[in-house]
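Input.
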Amino acid sequence: MIFGRRAASTVVGLDLGSHSIKIVEMDHSGKSPTLVNYGITELVPNAVQNGKVVERESVIESIGVLFDTCQIVNRQVNVALNGADVIIKTIQTDRMSNEELEKTIGWEAEQNVPFPLSEISLDYQVLDPEGDDPRMNVLLVAAKRDLIDEKLVLLEEAGCDVVLMDVDTFALMNALEANYESMAKGCHCIVHFGNESTHLGLVKNSLPILTRNLPVGGKKLVETIQGQLGISEDEAYITLYGPTEIVESEQGGEGESEGEGESEKAPPDITPFLGVLLDDVSIGVNRATAFMESTDESGTIEKIYLSGGCANIPDLDHIFEEKVGIPTEIANPLSMVSYKADIFQGEPVEKVAPTLTLAIGLGLRLP
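Output.
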């Protein structure tokens, strides 16, 4: 779904999560896009709950501070929609012209979208326009209008102009396809860990065939560590990610975790607690595999890519790979995309990049 126009040479991808806001600025003036700026800042606790903005003024202020601190002048942004109010589905129809499809797509949406047409914004794309088969595949995307309006109004109040509104699945795919040639063929699974939920996307030959939002994320894991070890929330984050991990940073590479510089001691083993997060996600992957076996989508998942903040948990990829029996890798959306090295100020890029995957996918998009 695309709104407005693009005037600047840079594209700003804004990922508004429930725990933090991530922003990237991509320069598209050269032969290939280059990441020239980024920032991450935490939100106040419970500012966003279940995808709904609760502390509105606080979120608006955080967005403004992030732009100012990162010195990003361009306020034209690409953002993503996610959650249960967004539906992605591939349907089959009789092969017809674009004009005919435009007239019938409403009827098709009524059969496939669990919301009244009056409540949704609808977009679609023919996946095999040059095909010879009597039937054609159409990618259908629907989102509740109140979800769209809420995000548009919020960002307008924050001084932003929304140019492109994407879906998180497509933004994540965009980030990975720009860095992994293998994504173009075969079947892959994207697991993007959020604070309150985890997005699971099954992609085959560059097309989404299944998406799920699982109600478990980093917040639940932190709460478990807090309760089991009897420590504060900040201490739980340090225990989870390590003292050198960026937990809150309003400018790339400038934030230091609490506890840095203190006397070192052996960190507690968090492996027993990871089941809180990984059990539900592994079940989701197993169900995705069963879905492929029960439909015409033949094949097996070749690789799983982990992204989001929790992807920085030490050895998470190896632990998850052992659990599901599928090759697993931490996504690096900057493995082939150019970037200005000085913006990371010595922080290992591969540590920051997974957290920025969704924002980078948005920043790579041009209307």
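The chain has ten helices and 16 strands.
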